[in-house]
Amino acid sequence: MEFTATDCGFDDRLGGASNAAAKKDYHYVLFGRQTDEQHPEFSGAYFEFDDQINGAANCVARIIVRDGGVDFGLKDGRKITVFRGMMEAKWASFLSGIRDTFDHEIIQGA
């Protein structure tokens, strides 16, 4: 799946991007750190796209940051590409959130 983000950001340990202002099909990614003391297997970097059914902790295997976008490679083989479609300040906040949320070992090109 891929889309051009018309809005994105990172605030209070929660980040994401969407194409809400686009006239095409709606898509989004959402991520953040979560801690579940009762179920430690659900702790870590949470990632979700397009619906909660597509969300899980520690499901991202690789992130590639490039000039015009970000590729999220999931452990199940799916890939979500978010292209930059907004001003630099918001995009920089989104990229900062990626670096704050995910293990540095899986991020390339940051």
Structure, briefly:
This protein is mostly beta strands and 110 residues long. Helices cover 13% and strands 50% of the residues.
Characterization of the model:
This protein has 110 residues and is mainly β. It has one domain. It is 13% helix and 50% strand. It is built from 1 helix and 10 strands. The protein has one helix spanning 88-101, and strands spanning 2-5, 7-11, 14-18, 28-34, 44-49, 51-57, 60-66, 69-74, 79-84, 107-108. The strands form 2 sheets. A 5-stranded mixed β-sheet has the order 1-9-8-7-10, covered by helices on one side. Strands 2-3-4-5-6 form a 5-stranded antiparallel β-sheet, covered by helices on one side. Strand 5 (44-49) and strand 6 (51-57) form a beta hairpin. The protein is globular and about 40 Å long. The model has no long low-confidence stretch (mean pLDDT 93).
Search tags:
mainly beta, 13% helix, 50% strand, 110 residues, 5-stranded antiparallel beta sheet, single chain
Secondary structure: elements and pairs:
Blueprint: E1 2-5, E2 7-11, E3 14-18, E4 28-34, E5 44-49, E6 51-57, E7 60-66, E8 69-74, E9 79-84, H1 88-101, E10 107-108
